[in-house]
Amino acid sequence: MIYEYRCYRVAPGRMADMEARFATINLPLFERHGIRLEKVLEQVEHLKIVDGTLSNAPPLSDEFHFVVSFPDREAQATAWKKYHEDPMFIAAREAQAGIMKVVEIKVFEEARRS
């Protein structure tokens, strides 16, 4: 199983637009192209330990977090290719330019430990 953690850094004042886009554009496209939404997450704490010292920074209010999954890397590549070629996505991207400043994607697979 492949998991993607995605963090969208949203332009100031555009979080409501991001949430609306996610509900009306992203979710239907996910369903259409085999992208399984696992969770939408809200950050409540940001901890770091550097050289044994713990620091706690407030969560950023401009971040939208979620996790999606795929059966394997091939399914992941195929799903995103179809997603980005979908006319609904293309129209939304053009109409809603400027909502996201940065997109951070981390891809994980289940650890194989012996």
Kindly describe this structure.
The protein is α+β, with helices and mostly antiparallel strands. The protein has a single domain (2-109), classed as Alpha-Beta Plaits (2-Layer Sandwich), CATH 3.30.70. Helix content is 36%, strand content 38%. It contains three helices and six strands; from the N terminus they run βαββββααβ. The strands form two sheets. The chain has a four-stranded antiparallel sheet. A two-stranded antiparallel sheet has the order 3-4. A hairpin with a 2-residue loop joins β3 and β4 (53-57). α1 packs across α2 (73-85). The longest helix is centred in the first third of the chain and has 19 residues, at 15-33. The two termini are 18 Å apart. The mean pLDDT is 93.
Topology of helices and strands:
Layout: E1 2-10, H1 15-33, E2 36-41, E3 46-50, E4 53-57, E5 63-70, H2 73-85, H3 87-95, E6 100-109
Helix pairs in contact: 1-2
